[in-house]
Amino acid sequence: MTDLDDAPTVALIDDHPAVLAGLASWYGAADPPVRVLASGSDLAVAQDGPGREADVVVLDLQLSATGPSYDGLRQLAEDGRAVIVYTMLDATDVALTSLDLGAFTYLTKAEGARHLVAATRAAAQSLPYTPPALAGAFGSDTRAGRPVLAPREVDVLLEWFQCESKRMVAQSLGLSVHTVATYLDRVRIKYANAGRPAHTKALLVARALQDGLVALEEL
User: Fold this and answer.
1) Fewer CB in 10 Å around end: N or C, the chain?
2) pTM exceeding 0.85
3) How many helices (H) does the chain have, and how many strands (E)?
4) What is the pLDDT of residues 21-38, one digit of tens each?
5) How far are the Cα atoms of 37, 76, 183 from residue 125, in angstroms, in the given order?
6) Is-contact 66 40, C-beta < 8 A?
7) What pLDDT sits at residue 95?
8) pLDDT confidence bin for 53, thresholds 50/70/90
């Protein structure tokens, strides 16, 4: 039996009570389960009380009838939270903008329990997760703002995606750990300067997928 104290935890933000109840049911039925610490219809769910301690925040991007609101996502991401955008909106520009603002991943509500639970587990462990809708958005991304990476920066980046540590990357490529860290810092700086920050490994994977540096099957 799984120790619930070790289970991933989540805060749910959605303005439809039926959706919140359904998500709680999915997480409770998962094997092993995911613990819902708090749920409700506004950002305070993740900022106050038990929700502050949640590993992952699941956020409905459309909490009003006026269209997607990115302010809440931006605020949570700036606070260092792992945010899964979970929405009815299946739109490439919305998905990519969400990632650019710091979302861990983007799921449509049509993608169901399997992808949501898997994405939540991945987010809790800072591991990349790309559901079908997001993969489609990556494939159709034609926006400008892609930084120009040097060939060695790309080599180090892709090797890092396959390794558990910078030390392993250094051993594989015949570099020092310091040099590997320097290359990765340069890549992050270039993405930040392009207005697409990537503070975590998971976000760097997302950027590399967006920009065609790596294919899903390679991960």
Assistant:
1) N
2) no
3) 10, 5
4) 999 999 999 999 999 999
5) 17, 18, 24
6) no
7) 85
8) very high
> What's the helix, strand, coil split of the chain in %, to 5?
55, 10, 35
Distance CA 155, CA 126 (A): 22
Euclidean distance between CA atoms 71 and 10, whole angstroms? 20
Provide the CB-side half-sphere exposure for 60 (13 A, CA).
21
Give which of 213, 114, 119, 113 is closest to 159, Cα–Cα.
213
Place of tokens 């929405």: 87
Instruction: Kindly indicate whether the domain formed by 4-139 is annotated with CATH number 3.50.30.10.
Output: no
CATH architecture, range 151-218: Orthogonal Bundle (1.10)
Domain 4-139 and domain 151-218, same fold? Reply is no
Q: What letter would DSSP give residue 149?
A: -
Where are the domains positioned within the chain? Answer: 4-139, 151-218
What is d(CA 183, CA 158) in angstroms, rounded to the nearest whole number?
12
Nearest C-alpha neighbor of 65 from the set 112, 13, 16: 16
